[in-house]
Amino acid sequence: MKNDGVSRRWFIGGAATGVVSAGLELSGYSQAEAAKQETPAPEISYRVLGRTGLKIPLISFGVMNSDNPDLLRRAFDLGLNHVDTAHLYLRGNSERVIGEVVEQRGNRDSVYIATKMRFARDRERHVFTNEATAREPAPTEENLFQQLETSLERLRTDYIDILYLHSCYSPAMATYEPLMKALVKAKEQGKARFIGVSTHRDEANVIRSAVDAGVYDVVLTSYNYLQDHKDAVGKAIAYAAGRGVGVVAMKTQGGKRLNQQEGVEINHQAALKWVFANPHVCTAIPGMTTFEQMDSNYAVMADLELSEAEERELKLASLLPGTYFCQSCRECVPTCPERVEIPSLMRAYMYAEAYGNTIQAEETIGGLPENRGLGVCADCTSCQARCRRDLPIADRVREMAGARWSMA
Amino acid sequence: MTFSTSRPIRHAAIILMMIAVAACSGGDPSQEAQGPSETTGFALPADGEPPGWSLVTELEHYEADNLWEYINGQADFFIDYGFVRVDTAEYRNDQESGSVVLEVYRMGRPQEAFGIFAAERTRDDRPLEIGAGAYLGANVLGFWQAEQYVKLTSFDEGPAVEQLLIALAEEISSRLPSQGHELETLVLFPEEDRVEASERFIPKNFLGQPYLTNAYRVGYTFDSQQLQLFVVDTGSPEEAQSHFKRLEDFYRERDQGPVILETTQNPPMLIVDGPSKMVVFRLDHRLGGAIGMRSLDVGRTAAAALAERMRR
């Protein structure tokens, strides 16, 4: 180290066999060391994942972030043995970190790994399309197996416990026959123990159609107390459970964006309890990036009862969208004769008024086409746009049109 | 420039001398009104621009509220890294079959652009010198430059496609509104024995602790002994002291092995001898240390060397 004056000796030490790779550095943590470690008293509540028969803790681990493998180790120490990821997350680095930690711990037999395969889709029509893009392969058996083999290699395993069709927007996508057949084939070959679909759009219909298709073992769905359509999703979940299809919940906190909004206090434990109040939900897969979050989520399993105070908090939080937040359902757009991009304008209003971020507000407004933007509203004298959540569109648009931050 | 060659320090000390090719946005609303891409100070290439490339799809952009529609579960991770907006479109080269999807992610700060770039880099990628650092995978090229993380994904693979990706990436790089920038914290890390392309920036929740933000981490290896060194910028000596104490308390409460405060060293070092070993020190407004090693001796020595560099 002649350049920096530090001797090479500073690295000299005992031999090791740890694993280090670019971006996924793992600490030297052996199975033997793991065995020595005391695990906390088991306070885990389990539910059975439908016909799979898998007994899974209510709290599972959505693994997107590969920054800290120690969190994954901690999860395993706690007995949280179901991890969920996806083929495309961070170009496979999320799968890689799971594979490396599981191999290091030697606990593949006691861990349930779920991952997802994604294919080209028409975002307007909500169907798969054979017109593959560079980002998304065509929905063919060949491409499914290509992704699957890559994922198996990254995960350092020869089977996936739950293999999902990723992000189905519609019943048509969930029941797309070539992919269903390919998933069944993967199951028959032992490369997937169980198969399923994931969805965070039109969830109720996607769940029902997936169940009726008769081939899926599991559905992974958005489900939280903030959803306008939570009752419909809840009924679809019951429908699935009644037919032996296991249900895994995601986006249980309402989404990262909401949780980062200043002034919004989300009671995360209460949000999880709300999900688990539906007995047909087997487990949830919150993403966890701190030990604090993990411990907090873990603690939920010790007491699933929603207190009155927690219920009140959830109720209050669920009212927040009516105060500031547009849910981008886009039902307002057809009510405007000029088809103004109202959801974007409402988002701009939120940036400026809720967060005081006028730059972001300006950018949002400035990003709109002239014939769909705020300028159209400025020339309009009688706003006809209507929001099903009763956001005061006309008032907000008027305010924005006259505001310093939007017109400077 | 890249972080992955044999001289990573020089590369880490990125000082871009690129001339800004477009005025930064934000001051001129008339410009902003012309199109979404103008608001980032960068316009995705139009059809036929650059020569030989045709636009296959319409230009799209996503912001934090609808990012999940574009990248699903990855959205949370990008938001944690300061995501502001992504502009994307698909292009076709007139000479080659297949197409290329161009994505320009605008993050809040240059280090966040680097952070997301580094998080998506894999061990199989080839480093390139485009922008402030680039990787080339089988059908994807990513680079970062100022607040932008740019990703080009091709439909096909092969040497000819690689050359196309590189040419297009260089073209995009030249169009980005850049300014001189230096990730100066990375200069603090020792150069020798670095693991190639192991530099990371972790904006929040470093070591699983919500109060540890703006962390840099670099991997090292020596004779099969592996570890990572880290530096966390806390903002003030008082904050550093507070975070140091909280870390100590955390590991004492966790009770997974001896936790020792070695005050005979300068700076004093917190030694965690649990299943995951750790050495941490505090120096002015920063925390530094070593993690991921099997031998605490190696961790101590490495951390001491890092502290010595940080003193200069």
| Mean pLDDT across every amino acid position of chain A | 83
Q: What average pLDDT do the residues of chain B reach?
A: 82
Number of domains of chain A: 2
Q: How is the main sheet of chain B built?
A: 8 strands, antiparallel
| Poorly predicted parts of chain B | 1-40
Q: Approximately how much helix is present in the residues of chain B?
A: 25-40%
CATH architecture of the largest domain in chain B: 3-Layer(aba) Sandwich
CATH fold-level topology of the largest domain in chain B: Protein Transport Mog1p, Chain A
Briefly say what this structure is.
The complex is a heterodimer of chains A (408) and B (312). Chain A has 408 residues and is of the alpha/beta class. Chain A contains 17 helices and twelve strands.
Structure description:
The complex is a heterodimer of chains A (408) and B (312). Chain A is α/β, with parallel strands linked by helices and 408 residues long. Chain A has helices spanning 31-36, 69-78, 93-105, 141-155, 171-174, 177-188, 203-213, 230-242, 256-259, 268-276, 291-300, 308-323, 342-354, 358-366, 374-378, 393-402, 404-407, and strands at residues 46-48, 55-57, 61-62, 82-84, 112-117, 121-122, 127-128, 160-165, 192-199, 218-222, 246-250, 283-284. In chain A, the strands form three sheets. Chain A has an eight-stranded parallel β-sheet with strand order 3-4-5-8-9-10-11-12. In chain A, strand 10, helix 8 (230-242) and strand 11 (246-250) form a beta-alpha-beta unit. In chain B, the strands form two sheets. In chain B, strands 1, 2, 3, 4, 5, 6, 7 and 8 form an eight-stranded antiparallel β-sheet that branches. Chain B has a seven-stranded antiparallel β-sheet with strand order 9-10-11-15-14-13-12, sandwiched between helices. Chain B starts with 7 loop residues before the first helix and ends with a helix. Chain B has helices at 8-12, 29-32, 67-71, 74-80, 110-120, 159-175, 237-254, 296-311, and strands at 53-55, 60-63, 83-93, 100-107, 126-128, 133-136, 140-145, 148-154, 200-202, 215-222, 225-233, 259-262, 269-273, 277-283, 286-291. Chain B has two domains: 18-175, Protein Transport Mog1p, Chain A (3-Layer(aba) Sandwich), CATH 3.40.1000; 185-311, Protein Transport Mog1p, Chain A. Chain B is an alpha+beta fold and 312 residues long.
